[in-house]
Design brief:
Strand content: 15-25%
Largest sheet: 7 strands, parallel
Structural class: alpha/beta
Number of strands: 7
Shape: globular
Length: 255
């Protein structure tokens, strides 16, 4: 049985990714800040699903997760790093504490997870001529284009993107691929919690010229499952000749 680690597993994209991976035949070692897994995972057994509480900003916590996964003594196919936080505010109004928190979760957490999970995978097999093993970072389309209200968030995701592709360059010698998925606006609690109980999806679909933001040509925001399907593809051997790539999944919102 091949295991895939998913951080941020209780979040919108994380939860959808766990379910998609299990449907696609993987076992999932899920991790999140919450002490308990999401209720939707209740039907899965130990052979298919394990859960651990983890703080991706803590080197000790991430190392403990890695050791728990290694203790399974089963093949680690890879990981999807979906843990992240968002923040919408002008850079002029952003506090240094907010800046540091975004960097800690969205960038430092990616570095720590990629490093520790790659170490496990190399210890299991120093090389993989089939290039079947895969690490996936969930960044954002804000990592690739300026956003008037997402400067600090975009910077943290840009750091995650670049450290991921740099890992990809180094891990290629071990047959491990590293790719980055960049979603746009997605119907998750991270987005909808800011809507004050109303469906405001029409706003990102239309765009906002005043903030130099394009709309979404496909005319809808993403569902978490749209991102999860891409994550599962990039984990799978079907993408074995892809590494260090940035896959933008935003309905055409960035060119």
């Amino acid at each position: 049985m091949s295991w895939v680690i998913v951080t941020g597993a209780n979040g919108g994209i994380g939860t959808a990714t766990v379910h998609q991976l299990i449907r696609d035949g993987y076992s999932v070692y899920a991790a999140d800040m919450a002490p308990e897994p999401a209720e939707s995972f209740a039907s899965y057994g130990d052979a298919t699903f394990r859960y651990a509480q983890v703080d991706v900003t803590s080197e000790e916590s991430v190392a403990a997760l890695a050791h728990s996964v290694a203790a399974l003594e089963q093949e680690i196919q890879g990981a999807v790093l979906a843990a992240g936080i968002a923040h919408s505010q002008s850079l002029l109004d952003t506090s240094f504490e907010t800046w540091k928190k975004l960097q800690a979760v969205n960038a430092d957490g990616v570095f720590l997870c990629l490093r520790e999970f790659a170490r496990i995978m190399i210890a299991q097999a120093d090389s993989d001529p089939s290039n079947a093993r895969s690490l996936v970072t969930i960044a954002s389309n804000a990592a690739r284009t300026p956003r008037a209200e997402f400067g600090a968030y975009g910077a943290s995701k840009a750091a995650a993107l670049r450290v991921s592709t740099s890992f990809g360059l180094q891990l290629a010698a071990h047959g491990i691929r590293v790719n980055v998925v960049c979603p746009g606006t997605t119907r998750t609690p991270m987005v909808t919690d800011a809507w004050d109980g109303e469906d405001q999806s029409a706003l990102p679909i239309a765009g906002n010229p005043a903030t130099y933001r394009l709309g979404i040509p496909l005319g809808r925001i993403a569902d978490p499952e749209d991102i999860a399907r891409v994550n599962s593809f990039v984990i799978s051997p079907s993408s074995r000749h892809m590494t260090m790539q940035e896959l933008v999944v935003d309905g055409g919102a960035t060119l």
